[in-house]
Amino acid sequence: MSEPLLVIFDCDGVLVDSEIIAAAVQTEMLAEHGIEVDAAEFATRYAGLTWPLVMERLTAETGTRFPDDFSARIDAEIDRRLGSDVEEIAGARTALDFIALPRCICSNSSSQRLELELEHVGLWDYFHPHIFSAPEVGTQKVKPAPDVFLYACEAFGVAPRTAIVIEDSVHGVAAASTAGCRVVGFTGGRHTHLGHAESLSESGAETVISRLADFPAVVTAFASWQDA
Question: Is residue 108 within 8 Å of 137, Cβ to Cβ?
Fold first, then answer.
């Protein structure tokens, strides 16, 4: 079993409790176009996907054509609410203080949004400058493509099998698993739902936790756990 050399965090829904805030904005503005959906249900269905991908799926499913400025308006309102309302996931700072390995963030969010929310909760300095926005680095392919995780491993000079990833979405788990990383699923955000843990396991997570306080022990345990 390879010794862990790098810990990779998703941001939204793992470090900051932002998924439910974004879903609230998105569903409020979708209602303006006749698409009625509960914010929690929306977060469950689309967590981990970029907004352009969500819009593509919504257009295919409903036939709705959105105004050219729709995405920009949603992004602006999400940023406004994140900048004032987003909170750290409970236990994030403590977990980071206990994990001595090199760490980074791999996210589908823009670097601007990542800085906004991480600065707001005081976690920016735990990661900067190792904060990788999938649409802005390497191939610029977003999760569920594995590319951002491969980019991070290359940046740190480690093999993917020695990297441990913590992810809250099936798309993120699948991306990290495809990259060859070891994956921990996380269900501690407010957008968690019935069957969340099972779906993460089915997507490739070796184990699933609901408290970040448990993550350092899992990182230690992964040094001795055998491959499935």
Answer: no
